[in-house]
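User: Could you go from structure to sequence for me? I need the amino acid at each position, not a summary. Structure tokens:
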């Protein structure tokens, strides 16, 4: 099957639907993660992201689309090499920005080695792009957990989960100083789902502005 052909995307949808069925059958929520634009993207590059959105809309109880790619794009949704630093990052460039993409214009590691057969070498330093991308996924998962245990949805990082309103110009302002707390998921105890080990079930689980 040729890459980017109708058959290619049809197979992608079929296989993704099979995976959703496998996980949802055992009560597992599925997160489909969108990819960012790269330095070589042409019109229609986000076709797969659109299909993921459609699958999430068709299965709202079992599937969420996470627009993680937007966290390493420009406010207009275009490609960018760098973004303003976040206060929670361990390092920041002298110009107040961090490089969020690899030299190949595709991956995240700022000093990434050229890919071979589609695989890059290890990244031996902090990767601002990978951090932003992972933070979006973590936020979506935590929001799902909070809804599951009856807590209000966290709104500090808008637009990452399916159904949320995303305004690139406004919401990319999340790349600003925030107070960060690592993933801290309370574990249920045997006394019932409403009781947790020493914490409130609605304790903030995600970065807070």
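Assistant: Here is the amino acid at each position, in order:
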């Amino acid at each position: 099957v040729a890459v980017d052909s109708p058959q290619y995307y049809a197979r992608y949808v079929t296989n993704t639907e099979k995976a959703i069925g496998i996980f949802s059958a055992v009560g597992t929520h599925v997160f489909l993660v969108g990819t960012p634009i790269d330095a070589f993207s042409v019109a229609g590059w986000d076709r797969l992201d659109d299909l993921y959105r459609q699958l999430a809309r068709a299965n709202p109880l079992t599937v969420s689309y996470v627009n993680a790619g937007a966290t390493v794009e420009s406010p207009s949704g275009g490609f960018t090499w760098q973004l303003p630093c976040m206060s929670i990052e361990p390092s920041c460039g002298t110009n107040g920005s961090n490089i969020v993409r690899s030299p190949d214009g595709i991956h995240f590691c700022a000093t990434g080695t050229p890919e071979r057969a589609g695989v890059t070498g290890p990244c031996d330093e902090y990767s601002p792009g990978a951090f932003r991308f992972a933070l979006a996924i973590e936020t979506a998962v935590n929001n799902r957990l909070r809804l599951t245990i009856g807590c209000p949805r966290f709104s500090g990082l808008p637009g990452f989960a399916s159904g949320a309103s995303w305004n690139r110009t406004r919401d990319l302002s999340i790349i600003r100083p925030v107070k960060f707390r690592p993933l801290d998921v309370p574990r249920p105890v045997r006394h019932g789902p409403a009781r947790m080990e020493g914490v409130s079930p609605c304790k903030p689980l995600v970065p807070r502005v």
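One structural detail worth keeping in mind: The mean pLDDT is 77.
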